[in-house]
Write a structure and sequence with these properties.
An 8-stranded mixed sheet has the order 33-34-36-35-37-38-39-40, with helices on both faces. Helix 1 packs across helix 9. The chain has 9 helices and 40 strands. It starts with a helix and ends with a helix. By secondary structure, it is of the alpha+beta class.
Length: about 700
């Protein structure tokens, strides 16, 4: 515990057998990672970011060849995120935000400083001409939205709405000031005003700012929480989601509950609204918690579209603006996520875990469906993984992120039709030392937990000289928990990285099992929202334990050398495994995990089942199992974590110290949950692998 982790790593690397030199950790995580893909409302222009060794830059391309062109020149690994990328409707400007950490649970718009600079970076809005030129700072602020006329950029600063011109002249100015925190700006179709959400804490309103009159009106204000405003194509109406406000009688903590919601359509002229749809009062009819929530949109084809889970899967529906029968657009046992509407308003395009192959349950493919009929088509069948689709403004092409079992996420484009060829935009960006030929193709496996729940997983088996008659094994536990690990490189940056770690561990001789435990997505509502899970019982740990036992039962696994690692919620389940079942899990790495659920139910002392819930919450927390914790562990945490407070690890480490239980630690000053600096990502990944190899490959 007292030794330097770096010293241990250097000594270990010097003694590592030749088998471990097949490729380095940095080789497999040093590819440019594409994200933040967007398209222009006219023509065929697209823009995105590449994160190349921590150097984040904007790239653009357009038809016919879609050759990537680097637009910015940010050439430092300083941890400053690029987000909210958009292209003006006239195709002249690319607007984006530099700074902040927009994947956190809190403080997303606050600056991050993982380089520990003596002058704190700022969260700033930039613009740059699409054709090329100098990137210009427009203002401090966040969440910019360009007007349909391409003449103004609205953004949020200090909870208020500001505006600035794309060229920065004149200087930014506040548009209006209102009570509460204002966000979710939606420009009117004619650019003469905007809708927005004004949160007042326990309730929220939909506001309309009229640009010419300089007035604000509230659409059917109530004691409820209204959000997700979307304009009708003619600009006369607004559709939005209404959910109950906070408060009410004290309610029980432990039982599952329906989370009600409804869709309303408001009249801008009269400020009135009418309900057009209300979710069924069932558990599965609760407000969806998959990507984008309700994904409410208003098409030019005269339909309002949305997502709902009420038939047991997160599907797409459409309804007429005046209400009536809903139309299920995507029937079947699969999920829809990352939903976008084509600019002509005729299509929804999205990622789905479905296709002709039964293994597609553990993949993602790009699909499309008309807004007014249930005629879904899978555009990218096969054994790849595709996500984050955007249709070009001319409707001719769809761009997306594409990967496979052997190739990391790369930007791709194809004609917006079926039976088309996917074009990877720039294969030359993949480093020459990327170990494609040394990777393994994971296999889909299933097994049952002790309570009979069917558990899903992907198995990475070592090949060649790394394969032995008895191999050490590792269970990988994802975070979220609403995530799904796949039969290929994950489309999200955090899990693209863990997929790379799993491949590296397999190259070192580990049999790796990436477990998709209950609470995850992709397998229906009951799997996603199970009973007695999380702080209410931790039932999902049964799936993790079953994964370890499944490995232990294999003839090619050394049952005394089964490890476990995971981050965030996966860190929580890793700590549960080491505390409850050290005899099964011989070592583990807990990366920024939750260790005490008591904070979840803070303020619920008046609940009818408060006393019982407090006991259940404690038993669902790793801190309850410190006395039975014997396996070695490495704790890793960034101390500016905006998803899981670093105090969760500080507290558990102290508890282990008080009981003289050995542990190792790696704390990253000033970095966040998502390792904003590439050099920190490398340090963390290498530490995970080094610890597991050192503890399990004796």
């Amino acid at each position: 515990m007292k030794k330097s982790l770096l010293f241990i790593l250097l000594v270990f690397l010097g003694k590592m057998p030749s088998i471990a030199q097949s490729f380095k950790m940095e080789d497999i995580i040093s590819y440019p990672l594409a994200s933040e893909l967007t398209s222009c409302a006219s023509g065929s222009k697209i823009a995105w970011t590449y994160n190349d060794h921590g150097k984040r830059n904007i790239y653009v391309a357009e038809s016919p060849d879609f050759k990537p062109r680097k637009l910015t020149s940010f050439d430092e690994d300083n941890g400053q995120q690029l987000s909210s990328i958009s292209i003006s409707a006239d195709g002249k400007w690319v607007v984006f935000v530099k700074g902040g950490e927009h994947s956190g649970n809190h403080d997303n718009s606050l600056t991050v400083n993982p380089s520990s600079l003596i002058v704190m970076p700022k969260v700033e809005i930039f613009s740059i001409p699409f054709k090329g030129g100098e990137a210009k700072i427009l203002a401090e602020g966040d969440y910019p939205v360009i007007s349909p006329k391409s003449d103004r950029v609205a953004f949020v600063k200090g909870g208020q709405i500001w505006q600035v011109s794309p060229d920065g002249s004149p200087a930014a100015k506040i548009l209006f000031e209102t009570k509460g925190t204002n966000y979710s700006v939606q420009w009117a179709p004619d650019g003469a005003g905007m809708a927005f959400v004004s949160s007042r804490g326990d309730h929220s309103f939909i506001g309309i700012f009229a640009d010419t009159e300089k007035t604000i009106r509230w659409i059917a204000p109530s004691f409820a929480k209204d959000d997700s405003p979307k304009w009708s194509p003619d600009g006369k109406k607004i559709t939005f989601v209404r959910r109950p406000g906070s408060g009410g009688l004290p309610d029980s903590i432990l039982p599952r509950k329906h989370n009600p919601w409804k869709i309303l359509v408001g009249d801008v002229a009269t400020s009135t609204a009418q309900k057009i749809w209300e979710a069924p009062k069932t558990l599965s009819g609760s407000y969806p918690t998959t990507d984008g929530g309700a994904n409410l949109m208003w098409s030019s084809a005269g339909r309002i579209t949305f997502s709902s889970y009420h038939d047991g899967w997160p599907h797409l529906y459409s309804i007429k603006p005046e209400g009536g029968e809903t139309l299920l657009l995507t029937p079947g046992n699969f999920m829809c996520e990352y939903i976008e509407m084509s600019y002509d308003g005729k299509w929804l395009v999205f990622a789905a875990n479905t296709g002709a192959d039964v293994l597609d349950l553990d993949r993602r493919h790009i699909a499309r469906v008309p807004v007014d009929m249930a005629k879904m088509e899978v555009l990218t069948p096969g054994n790849g993984v595709e996500a984050f689709p955007v249709v070009t403004g001319d409707g001719a092409n769809v761009a997306f992120i594409s990967s496979s079992a052997l190739l990391p996420p790369q930007l791709a484009v194809m004609p917006f039709n079926t039976n088309q060829t996917i074009k990877i935009l720039d294969k030359s960006l993949l480093p020459a030392n990327f170990p494609t030929g040394k990777l393994v193709i994971p296999k889909q496996v299933t097994f049952k937990a002790s309570d009979g729940t069917l558990v899903y997983a992907q198995l990475f088996e070592p090949t060649g000289g790394a394969k032995k008659s008895k191999n050490p094994a590792v269970v990988f536990v994802h975070g979220g928990p609403p995530r799904q690990m796949l039969l290929g490189w994950h489309y999200g940056d955090y899990y693209a990285n863990t997929y790379a770690i799993n491949q590296y561990l397999a190259s070192q001789g580990f049999i790796v099992l990436a477990v998709n435990y209950r609470l995850g997505i992709g397998y229906g509502f009951e799997f996603h929202k199970p009973v007695n899970a999380g702080s209410n019982g931790g039932a999902e740990y049964l799936d993790v334990k079953a994964a370890g036992e499944w490995l232990a039962a294999r003839s090619d696994v050394d049952r005394k050398k089964i490890g476990i690692y995971g981050g965030s919620y996966g860190g929580y389940l890793t700590a549960m495994a080491l505390g409850k079942d050290s005899k099964l899990f011989a070592a583990g790495v807990d990366v920024h995990g939750v260790h005490d659920w008591a904070f979840v139910n803070e303020g619920s002392k008046t609940a009818p089942d408060a006393a019982l819930a407090a006991k259940v919450v404690y038993k669902s927390s790793p801190i309850a199992y410190v006395n039975t914790w014997t396996s070695p562990v490495l704790f890793i945490h960034g101390d500016d974590d905006r998803n899981v407070y670093v105090s969760q690890s500080v507290d558990l480490v102290r508890r282990l110290e008080q009981r003289n239980i050995p542990f190792e630690q790696l704390i990253i000053p000033d970095d966040t949950h998502h390792w904003m600096k590439f050099s920190n990502q490398v340090k963390v990944d290498q530490a995970i692998a080094e610890f597991l190899v050192r503890k399990l490959m004796k």
